Give the backbone structure.
Amino acid sequence: MTAGFGLITNPDADTDATVVAVTTPAAPVAELHETVEDETGTMVMRPIEGGFTIPAGGEFPLSPAGNHLMLMEISEPLTAGAEVPFTLEFSDGSTLDFSAVVKDYSGANENYVGDDSGGMDMGDGDE
Ligand SMILES: [Cu+2]
C-alpha cells in the first residue's frame, strides 16, 4: 500500500482550513483517509467525511495509524528516494502544492478496509 504522511500546519490563519481533496501525478486516484476502530475493535481506514480540518493557528498530523493521504491504483511502484508532487485543495477553492520524498515503510500493519472484500486497490504490497 502507498500512503502519504506528514504534518499540515495552519500557523498564521485566523480561520480553520479544510482540505477537501488531494491530487498527485503519482497515482490516478488519491483520497483523504482516516483510521478508525470498527465494531470489532479492529483499526480500519476509510475516506474521511468532510475532509481534513486544520484549526486556525494549529496543525493536523498525518500518520500511519491516523489520517493519511491514500494513493490508489498506482501502476508503477514508487521508488524510494523519488520526489512526488502533491496538490491539496481547500474548501475555499485555494490549492497548496508540495512534494514528498518516497520512503520504504514497514510499520503500520493495521487491517484496512477492503482487505477482505477486495473492494479497494492498495497497490503493490510486495514493494
Ligand atoms: Cu488509506
